[in-house]
């Protein structure tokens, strides 16, 4: 399939480039923000690849815009997606009519499940093991406690980061070559949109929370507006709220304005008690 | 004064874990130890760090949830406990409320200040100025969060624990509650932006499928992705078969069905 010492035949991307991206991915949570989460770090990490593949400002602008979209996953595993994005950008750079929307669709489809695995493995398992070892020593005031804590966590976690960068790229490149040969690119784009939207739907249900605890009726009959909504369909309020935001964005409302409105709504909701 | 500056630097180093691979420098175990080193009582720092680590065990970011700001809580809690000669209880009693208070600042920054850097980065990206994008990332993290935490820790230590206690008592409960509620609303922006990007009439129903699978059946996102992948594959197969059927219409009908 692939020769052992080059990452991919006839590829512009070298191992060194991949490691550069992995190194930049270390700052995956540095400019984390509530608007698009880890979008700026993701774009930052991919810039060496973008610069290498595209030579005009217009092409670079397009690529950077793509990767400034919403992103979030367990930071140590983000390189798997960076690797896949690298392979897809390379495909886009070499192929005339590559559908660029598939680059983001694939990224979106995979980031949720990857976070699911990553959060339980990195935060739930590795961190707990490291903390257990660290605390047992630190309780007696032994400075080896914090040192071992850092080593036990970081050697596997950061090792994984570099490994996944290469694995993601290889996986993406192999997969794309196959797809290209069989002429299934259109199907890939469609399939990725289906999968991506289902994941976004699930993540919306898990992450957006809003409840209206205003009581209606009295005594045993008492119920709240939130309960009534959940009776119609669980999660109706978060769903409706997300769509309001979606339509505001469609109407070209600035995200800053929406952020401010949300803060006002949250504070007023707490003060007057109509949200809870 | 010197100690206040050093502690500010310790806090900034802790927050810099987000620049250095989310390597857990910010955990109480490490922050407590470094605070102990600055104040000349290493073993006390390590011990208090271990105590606070246990208290903050459940505090780590999953998805879009941000844990209490442990750095300021640990550094100040440990520092006040060491300088006043009180024990772990004092470190906890001050550390926990400080952590929730500073979280408010951190959240405000991630809601208002950091998005400004992101918008500026959008502008640079639109003209292909990659250096500008890089600069927004690096400066955003520094001015948006890192420096703020450093200043809060340095100034608070300089003012001393009675003043800080006074400030903690002044924050009304509804402000904290209100910000908590806001955090629940904010992810809608990210998802709204994503929907704008991929949603069209042909695939819109799948958003609702994912949502309903989560709310009705309580399937976690990984499970939804598995079902989603299967649905996507099946649909692609059907689409291609239809295409294939049209192309070879009347030639070899029925053959494919045997595979089922």
UniProtKB/TrEMBL annotation, chain A:
Residue ranges crossing the lipid bilayer per the database entry: 114-137, 143-164, 184-205, 225-249, 256-275
Organism: Longicatena caecimuris
GO BP: phosphoenolpyruvate-dependent sugar phosphotransferase system
Tree of life domain: Bacteria
InterPro entries recorded: GatZ_KbaZ_carbometab, PTS_IID_man
Protein name in UniProt: Fructoselysine and glucoselysine-specific PTS system IID component
GO cellular component annotations of the record: plasma membrane
PANTHER family linked: N-ACETYLGALACTOSAMINE PERMEASE II COMPONENT-RELATED, TRANSPORT PROTEIN, PTS SYSTEM
Record's keyword terms, sorted: Membrane, Transmembrane, Transmembrane helix
Signal peptide region: none
Automatic annotation (TrEMBL), chain B:
Protein's cellular compartments: Cell membrane
Cross-referenced Pfam families: EII-Sor
GO cellular component terms, semicolon-separated: plasma membrane
UniProt keywords, alphabetically: Cell membrane, Membrane, Phosphotransferase system, Sugar transport, Transmembrane, Transmembrane helix, Transport
Membrane topology, record value: Multi-pass membrane protein
PANTHER family: N-ACETYLGALACTOSAMINE PERMEASE II COMPONENT-RELATED, N-ACETYLGALACTOSAMINE PERMEASE IIC COMPONENT 1
Protein name: Fructoselysine and glucoselysine-specific PTS system IIC component
Organism: Longicatena caecimuris
GO terms, biological process: phosphoenolpyruvate-dependent sugar phosphotransferase system
TM ranges: 37-59, 71-92, 98-118, 138-159, 179-199, 206-236
Superkingdom: Bacteria
InterPro entries in the record: GatZ_KbaZ_carbometab (IPR050303), PTS_IIC_man (IPR004700)
């Amino acid at each position: 399939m692939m020769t052992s010492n080059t990452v991919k035949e006839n590829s512009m991307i070298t191992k060194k480039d991949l490691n550069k991206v992995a190194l930049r991915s270390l700052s995956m949570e540095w400019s984390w923000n509530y608007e698009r989460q880890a979008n700026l770090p993701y774009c930052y990490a991919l810039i060496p690849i973008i610069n290498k593949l595209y030579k005009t400002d217009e092409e670079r602008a397009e690529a950077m815009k793509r990767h400034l979209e919403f992103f979030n996953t367990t930071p140590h595993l983000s390189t798997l997606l960076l690797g896949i994005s690298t392979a897809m950008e390379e495909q886009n750079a070499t192929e005339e009519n590559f559908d660029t929307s598939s680059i983001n669709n694939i990224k979106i489809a995979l980031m949720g499940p990857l976070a699911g695995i990553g959060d339980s493995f990195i935060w739930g398992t590795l961190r707990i093991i490291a903390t257990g070892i660290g605390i047992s020593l630190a309780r007696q005031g032994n400075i080896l406690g914090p040192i071992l804590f850092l080593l036990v966590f970081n050697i596997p976690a950061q090792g994984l980061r570099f490994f996944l960068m290469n694995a993601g790229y290889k996986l993406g490149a192999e997969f794309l070559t196959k797809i290209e040969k069989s002429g299934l690119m259109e199907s890939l784009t469609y399939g990725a949109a289906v999968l991506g939207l289902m994941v976004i739907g699930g993540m919306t249900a898990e992450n957006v929370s809003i409840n209206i605890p205003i009581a209606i009726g009295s005594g045993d009959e008492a119920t709240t507006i939130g309960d009534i909504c959940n009776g119609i369909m669980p999660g109706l309020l978060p769903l409706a709220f997300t769509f309001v935001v979606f339509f505001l964005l469609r109407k070209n409302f600035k995200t800053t304005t929406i952020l401010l409105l949300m803060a006002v709504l949250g504070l007023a909701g707490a003060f007057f008690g109509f949200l809870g | 004064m010197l100690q206040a500056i050093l502690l500010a630097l310790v806090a900034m180093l802790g927050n810099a874990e987000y620049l250095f691979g989310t390597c857990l420098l910010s955990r109480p175990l490490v922050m407590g130890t470094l605070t102990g080193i600055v104040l000349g009582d290493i073993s006390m720092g390590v011990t208090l760090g271990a105590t606070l680590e246990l208290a903050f065990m459940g505090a780590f970011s999953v998805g879009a949830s941000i844990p209490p700001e442990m750095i300021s809580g640990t550094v100040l809690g440990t520092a006040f406990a060491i300088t006043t000669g009180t024990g772990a209880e004092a470190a906890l009693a001050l550390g926990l409320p400080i952590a929730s208070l500073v979280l408010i600042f951190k959240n405000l920054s991630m809601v208002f200040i950091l998005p400004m850097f992101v918008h500026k980065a959008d502008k640079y990206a639109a003209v292909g100025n990659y250096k500008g994008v890089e600069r927004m990332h690096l400066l955003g993290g520094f001015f948006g969060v890192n420096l703020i935490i450093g200043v809060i820790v340095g100034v608070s230590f300089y003012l001393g624990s009675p003043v800080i206690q006074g400030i903690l008592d002044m924050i009304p409960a509804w402000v904290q509650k209100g910000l908590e509620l806001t955090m629940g609303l904010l992810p809608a922006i990210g998802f709204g932006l994503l929907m704008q990007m991929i949603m069209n009439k042909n695939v819109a129903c799948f958003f609702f499928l994912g949502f309903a699978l989560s709310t009705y059946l309580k399937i976690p996102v990984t499970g939804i992705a598995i079902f989603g992948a299967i649905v996507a594959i099946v649909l692609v197969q059907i689409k291609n078969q239809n295409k294939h059927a049209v192309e070879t219409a009347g030639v070899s009908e029925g053959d494919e069905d045997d595979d089922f």
